[in-house]
Amino acid sequence: MLPIDLPMLLADKHATFWFPPAASTFAKDVDWLYMVILYISIFFFVLVVAAMVLFAIKYRRRPGYVGDSRPLHNNALEITWTVIPSLIVCWIFVEGVNGYMDMMTPPVDTIDINVTARQWDWSFQYPNGAISDQLHIPNNRAILLNMRSEDVLHAFYVPAFRAKSDVVPGRVTTMWFQPILEGEFDLFCAEYCGDLHSDMIKRHGVVVHDQAGYDAWLADAAKPPVNAVAHGFWLYQRMGCKSCHSTVEGTRIVGPSFAKSYDQTLRTAKGADVKFDQQYIRQSILEPQAEVREGYQNASQMPSFQGKLNEDQLSALTAFLVAMKDDAFIQAVADGDLSQADKESLGLTDAAGADAAGADAASDTGKSAEEPLEKPADEVPTEPASESSESPPAPKT
Amino acid sequence: MSAVATSPTHSQPDSDNFLIYSKGFLSWALTLDHKRIGLMYLVAVMASFFVAGILALVLRTELLTPTEWFLTPQQYNQVFTLHGAIMVFLFVIPSVPAALGNFLVPVMLGAKDVAFPRLNLSSFYLWVGGAIFFLTALLYTGLDTGWTFYTPYSTTTRGPVVAATMGVFILGFSSIFTGLNFIVTINTMRPPGMTWFKMPLFLWATYATSIIQVLATPVLGITMLLLAAENILHIGIFDPKYNGDPVTYQHFFWFYSHPAVYIMILPGMGVISELMSVHSHKSIFGYRFIAYSSIAIALFSFLVWGHHMFTSGMANVASLIFSALTFCVSIPSAIKVFNWLATMYKGTVQLNTPMCYALTFIFLFTIGGLTGLWLGALSTDRPLHDTYFVVSHFHYVMVGGSLVGFLGGIFHWWPKMTGRMFNDLWGRVSCLFVLIGFNLTFLPQFVLGSRGMPRRYAHYVPEFQELHQLSTFGSYVLGAGLFIALGVLIHSLMRGKQAPPNPWGGATLEWQCSSPPPFYNFSHPPTVNEPYNYLPLQYHGEELGWEYVHPSHTAAPSIHPAPTKS
Amino acid sequence: MANDTATLDPAHAHGEHADGHGAHAHMPFQAHHFDDPEQQFDAGKLGMWIFLVTEVLFFSGMFCAYALYRSLHPEVWTFASQFLNEMLGAFNTGVLLFSSLTMAWGVRCAQLRQRTGLVICLAITLGCAAMFLGIKAVEYTHKWDMGLLPAGFYESQYLPGAHHTGLSSWLVRLCIIPGVLTVGFALWYLVTLIKGQKRHSEIAGPMLVTGLCFFLGAYLGIVIQSFEESSHGTISHDSHVAAGVDAGGHSDEPASRSPGDPLPEEIDQAGGAGLFFSIYYCMTGVHAIHILGGMVVLTWLLVRATKDQFNEQYFGPVDYVGLYWHLVDLIWIYLFPLLYLIK
Question: Inter-chain contact B447–A18, Cβ cutoff 8 Å?
């Protein structure tokens, strides 16, 4: 209907004017039915409009023309235009049901992935325990998603797969699909879920690998970094923290930024002063509503992570938050990623060891960096150590 | 098939005119006259439409860019919520039934008033009260739940959900009272001779609408009450935290809100049935089919609510049944379209403003109806659900259908309501703008939807930008068309020529009383004739319009002698 | 709800509208836009029936929620309904049934133009309604004290200290408004007696009776409740606490519990019994609001009855309110077994 060729559209060779790439087994059938209904509709639409225009011109009121105002009736005609559309919609109904039953009936051999939706992020848990915020799947394998929501309604929608299902809190909803194209596809949340609903767009949120690539990725993803700070950042990316908390100083997404927060004295919504220390971090993760920072009492409520994080993970996140007072670290993660080079320059590689080695590495950073970094560099080494000594008492409180 | 002998204008003094028979603010504010209440509704719903329409333009303007421009995502959410809520609850639902219906139902029926005039007035003030609740929500922190108030978002957000739900609750009662009034009026106040099958099709449509209003709206009422209780008392019925289920809310909500879609479109269809016949100067084709199809739509409308939840995790059997029933409801609508077209056949088509709007209605409603096929079919609905395809589909039906029908009706009955003619040329220009602007706005949205653009997005991926921009420019054209229409109406009020009692040659009863009608519509019970028999009407030029002539002077197949005025 | 009938107010017929329409001899009560009294009566009756249909649909939403959650969690319903006092429920059922009788009798009186009979019938109906509310107030406040509240505020019955004895402070607070009204009616009644305003005293008297009936209901409610607790002893909720704690060996424990069923502790929480009480409060609360609405309309009828406005030809409003009142009774007749008598 719209003969406009848009350059953006042709960028992806698999996309057509009407559809995104047909990247799953459903796509062919759905697109076929879509186009058939389109042709049927165009036929009837043209019929209706042509008759309308023809009658409006032919029988228009004009000098010398006298129309007939007496009633006409023709039962045969009425029945014809009742029965023919009825038959057509019956056929469409049957075709729709066929395609739908395919979508609702997963095959036996599937890869089961747990999906957690939360405001405003996704996380995916794989059979081997790996967690990611992008969905990585192998090509030509049936994927079954078990979806849960932590807060409100969401909908998992990958246009390229023609697959969509709501994620309903209090229920586990399932959906399946089988990708047939390798590549990266957009993942949308299609059910309105609050303030940043439209930021639940995951550009290239679904990555379809070949089987070998998937296996390699999966093996790698199952191993979180050993270094506590790197592990904390790894969790920050995957557990949904990053959808509300920025790592750039002074930037508010929904909650406050993490940058330069540690050791600050904050004012809470209740008017009390509280120190942003390790206990505060712990409390804010497990009981987010206990001490809300001033100015954030009207923001969307943070869910509690009680039971979702174990003590090791809490410690790692704490280490990450502590490290967030270091300019070099803030800069390293400013691009949203902690690359191997960043890790090496900051001494956060796993090879550097999990325990006291972090201290050496951090003091290396201090030496190589400029003068103003001297002071934080001194503190960083103490944190992992003191952190490991302080965290055991914490559970008692 | 008798006819009223003379035009009542000649026998009635001007002071009987319902607009001026009494003066002063209170004579309007406390009026029990259905025509005045209808006009007050008309002004009120048009003001709501103006507000919500401006909000729509704001949304479209923000969507010119894929990233944040001048609205934060939170503000965007509040604006689309208000746009939707005001349009649905304050404009579309009361537009034709409450504004045009109040004015027309008793006059078309040949009654002096609706059965319960005080209930009618209280229904208007309930509307005002509900609107005030909505405005409160606007001026307070801003409501951001979407017009559907889906739980659990609506029970966790800090927006003024309780005020808004109470607003909807009150508006619901307004709607119930209007519907109840019309059912009783049509059932018990038909004058002698006005049998069911002599009623104009607008009345059939209004009757069907009223049935839906009376049967569906209470369920909305209790749903809103439970939602408010959920917010205040945490009753947990819809809250998964307490073993409640959010999908239950969706069932409750759509049990009302799907029939509500037909509250919006059925009266529009009724208006079009009148317009097509009168302006084609041709008896309506398939009167009974159109009448029955209105009732069929009303009944089917209660059985299809589940098609809003094909992706919500309903049982497969339920999805199948709802899909089948959804297709059933499409057939009566198709029948109406074909009957309207057949009405033009061999008639005398006058392409004046009301007729242009009627043809625009058929054009847009056909697209709206046909695109329902994609959404009714289960497999194509799953990718299209909650995308711009749905947005476009319901705008084709709600705006292309209800709004255009409403505008057509306003232009058609404007001379009757105000006693003034309007500038027909500019009226047609406004219609052209609306037609072009509307299609430019919403055709691209079908493509956006099939490509996967989800609805209610403040930001979107850059591939969609061209189509969004096209849509936004279309919305400006549409807005311009509506402003022109408003200008035409205001100009008519100030400078319009005096309207004759029957400017278009309508054969229904409202054209028998003067323009505007006297206080009690008919000084004597009117003689009822066939609503679409144009044979006894003769045109006497623009000044006088159409007049009934004595049947013996015409070729009309008259059986009874015409009664003479006593 | 008064509005549909309000249109039939005769005052409307004497409105300012004179349009040369004096040909018909209107009855004084006939509204101007109707052709004849029959049309007016039929319109009112049809309007009332349609209104009742909307009422039924309004309640049907809650009945649907009830059916849904009871079918999902039948054990919760069995457990929680034991906290409802069947004696009070049954007594209230009787009160409402009796009020339906007096209402129907009142319609008959209106049709026969028995002014005094109508006033007495309306007064008794009003009194019954107030007594119903008095008993309901006792039931409600007792549950509030026990923490049997909607899901969000539900307090587990297994926690110590949940029980409360003595006069409920909630009940005292609930009685403030009826108390003030009753004192006001009493004063008004005295004034009318002293001044000898017969018609006013005919209104004030029944209103005073209504107010007193509320307190009579509350008193009876307390008596029945304490009788229940003392005579059965074990039936009070304390026994269930005990029964639950000693893991079901007790004779009062619902016998149907099979090993797969959830433990009482699992039911006795916000998402279990709390949900039951949410639905209980919604249904009975909305019903109580309808009783209150009915009382307002009955009072309006009472005022008109004392003016002798109803007769053989014009008794529509009494008839319509009667229909409404029967519906409100009928809904209670469904609510009582569905909520109280679950075994």
Answer: yes
What is the Cα–Cα distance from A94 to A53, expressed in whole angstroms? Answer: 34
> Is the bond leading into B516 cis (omega within 30 degrees of zero)?
yes
Q: Is B73 on the interface with A (CB under 8 A)?
A: yes
User: In CATH terms, is domain A111-221 a member of 3.20.20.100?
Assistant: no
Residue A387's pLDDT is what? 39
Residue type, B478: L
Tokens matching residue C62: 């809650």
- Per-window interface: B 23-62 vs C, CB < 8 A: 32
Contact partners for chain A, using 3 or more CB pairs closer than 8 A, are B
Q: Which residue of B has its CA nearest to C23?
A: B524
- Closest CB to C274 among B116, B176, B242: B242
List Cβ neighbours of C214 (8 Å cut-off, separation of 6 or more): C130, C131, C133, C134, C137, C175, C178, C182
Angle separating helix axes B117-139 and B73-85, nearest 10 degrees: 180
Q: Which domains occur in chain C, in start order?
A: 34-246+262-340 (1.20.120.80)
**Cβ–Cβ below 8 Å for A81 and B335:** yes
| CATH ID of B31-280, from 3.40.50.620, 3.30.70.360, 1.10.760.10, 1.20.210.10 | 1.20.210.10
Residue showing tokens 């002293």:
C194
Give this complex's ipTM: 0.88
C-alpha count within 13 angstroms, C-beta hemisphere, residue C42: 14
| Beta strands A135-138 and A202-209, pairing class | parallel
Question: What is the domain partition of chain A in residue ranges?
Answer: 7-63+71-104, 111-221, 228-396
Place of tokens 């703008």: B433
C167 Ramachandran zone, left/alpha/beta (phi>0; psi -120 to 50): beta
Average the pLDDT over C142-158 and give the result. Answer: 79
**Which of the following CATH numbers is that of domain A7-63+71-104: 2.40.280.10, 1.10.287.90, 3.40.109.40, 3.40.50.10170?**
1.10.287.90
Domain segments of chain B: what residues? Answer: 1-22+504-566, 31-280
**Has residue C172 got a pLDDT over 50?**
yes
CB atoms within 10 A of CB A204: 11
Q: Per-residue b/e over B38-65, b at no fewer than 16 CB within 10 Å?
A: bbbbbebbbebbebbbebbebbbebbeb
CA A92, CA A88: separation in Å to the nearest integer?
6
Summarize pLDDT for B254-279 with one digit per residue, the tens.
Answer: 998 999 999 999 999 999 999 999 99
Give CA–CA dist B120/B182, Å, rounded. 10
The answer to whether the CB of B451 falls within 8 A of the CB of A20 is yes
Spans of chain A below 70 pLDDT: 1-13, 298, 350-397
Look at C272 and B243 and tell me if their CB atoms are within 8 Å.
yes
Distance CA A127, CA C94 (A): 63
Task: Determine contact: B225 vs chain C, CB below 8 A.
Answer: yes
Q: Which residues of C touch B215 (CB under 8 A)?
A: 53-54, 57
Class of CATH domain A228-396? mainly alpha
Contact A103, B379 (CB under 8 A): yes
The average pLDDT across C55-70 equals: 91
In Å, how far is C301's CA from the nearest CA of chain B? 18
Q: Report how far apart, in Å, the C-alpha atoms of A259 and of each of A159, A322, B466 are.
A: 36, 9, 38
Query: What gap in Å lies between CA B416 and CA B393, rounded to an integer?
Result: 33
SS3 content of chain B, % helix, strand, coil (to 5): 70, 0, 30
DSSP letter (8 states) at residue B513: S
Residue B565 near chain C (CB below 8 Å): no
pLDDT band for position C217 (cuts 50, 70, 90): very high
**Residue-level pLDDT at A386:** 39
Give the pairing of strands A202-209 and A143-149: unpaired
**Cβ separation A166–B311 shorter than 8 A:** yes
- Token pair recorded at residue C186: 């009493």
